[in-house]
Amino acid sequence: MQTSLNQETQEINKTADRADILDYLSYSNMMEGNLNYALTLTEELLTLAPDNTRAQNNKRYYKKMLNDRAIESHQLASQRGEIGVEDTEEEIKHERKLDDYRNSEEFATYEKLCRGEDTQVSVNWASILANQFEKENDIDLLTRSQGKICQATSEEESKSIESYNNILLLGRATVHNAKTGKLETATYRISKSAWLKDEDDLAIRRVNSRIEAATGLDMSTAEDLQIANYGLGGHYEPHFDFARKEEKHAFKSLGTGNRIATWLTYMSDVKAGGATVFPYIGVKIFPEKGGAAFWYNLYKSGEGIYDTRHAACPVLVGTKWVSNKWIHEKGQEFRRRCGLNPDE
Question: Which parts of the chain are coiled coil (predicted)?
């Protein structure tokens, strides 16, 4: 039906009614779980046939399904310990001693990297990235360039993931307080985020499948794809993606272990600012639309790799869109086996 719609658009002498094609195509996409696209097609149908009763009912039904899914997504994400949710009156201010921290050597390094400066720590990021993959064949689908993975997503996939209906799900991002176990907003994390399921859109399924093919890791226990938007001044100061030993309850409710790896996709270019930086190893990655970065958060022993402490630099001009895929330990037992060397 998608082919029919494309053909109808190009035809001068129409051989089919566009409204009929939209009707069938929206229904088939709904049955496949592509609710966002089904709603988009139905809304176009109603511009052509505003009195179409079935389309009116379908629109209400699709919106209800999307709303129910959004509520479920927020409920599940609240168990993760890291989610974009709207502010509430009960939020607790985070106790991070920001004044002391922002006078620290680490913060100074973070700021230098954000400005594009080199630091005393210098590494070959391309070599590090190459070593992250245990098999060279794992990245046949992608192209490495200057330490980043290029062509990780297509233009169409990025547009689909950033669709209007997904934007409606965005909420203020929060952090997990290790002391109280509660979610709260923090001045060191300014962005909005939302969680998207495989069944939400074909593009999401394709991106998740590509990540699995590239990394060789099992996605069945990974977290849902998170999209995040950083507006002007949006940033996330240095942090770890994995839970440290003292954070025993960080991912307990998921039952999938710690975050073994991170896949970060850049879905937009940024006119100025917005780099991803690693202060401990002096690495800086400036966003390029369609590009991605991948790193392991844990050694094969399960111990955390503290060199992965990283940050999202403030956006100075424009806006920044990214998606995150956090991959967990469970299911990787035969894909990334434990090693005898504690440093591997």
Answer: none
Do residues 138 and 131 lie in contact, with contact meaning Cβ atoms separated by under 8 Å? no
Whole-angstrom distance, CA of residue 317 vs CA of residue 268: 13
Give the number of other CB atoms < 10 A from CB of residue 216: 15
CA distance 167 to 186: 21
- End-to-end, the C-alpha distance of the chain in Å comes to 50
Token reading at 48: 């052509």
Q: Which two tokens stand for residue 21?
A: 């094609």
Asked if 193 contacts 322 with a C-beta cutoff of 8 angstroms, the reply is no
Stretch(es) of the chain classified as CATH 2.60.120.620: 123-328
Contacts of 253 (CB under 8 A, 6+ apart): 79, 80
Q: Which CATH superfamily is domain 123-328 in?
A: q2cbj1_9rhob like domain (2.60.120.620)
Three-class SS state of 207? helix
Q: How far is Cα 282 from Cα 284, in angstroms, rounded to an integer?
A: 7
Location of each CATH 1.25.40.10 domain in the chain: 1-79
The CATH class for the domain spanning 1-79 reads: mainly alpha
Q: Is 137 helix (H, G, I), strand (E, B) or coil?
A: helix
Query: Tens digit of pLDDT per residue, the chain (344 long)?
Result: 445 555 556 556 656 678 887 887 887 777 766 777 788 888 888 988 898 888 888 888 888 777 766 665 555 545 444 444 343 333 334 445 666 777 888 899 999 999 999 876 544 444 444 444 443 333 333 333 334 566 788 888 888 888 766 777 899 998 877 666 677 888 889 999 999 999 888 999 999 999 999 899 999 999 999 999 999 999 999 999 999 888 877 888 889 999 999 999 999 999 999 999 999 888 899 999 998 999 999 999 899 998 899 999 999 999 999 999 999 999 999 999 887 776 66
Residue 75: CB atoms within 10 A of its CB come to 10
How many CB atoms within 10 Å of residue 119?
17
Query: What are 23's two structure tokens?
Result: 């009707």
Closest CA to 328 of 262, 266, 240: 262
Cα–Cα distance for residue pair 283/118, rounded to 1 Å: 9
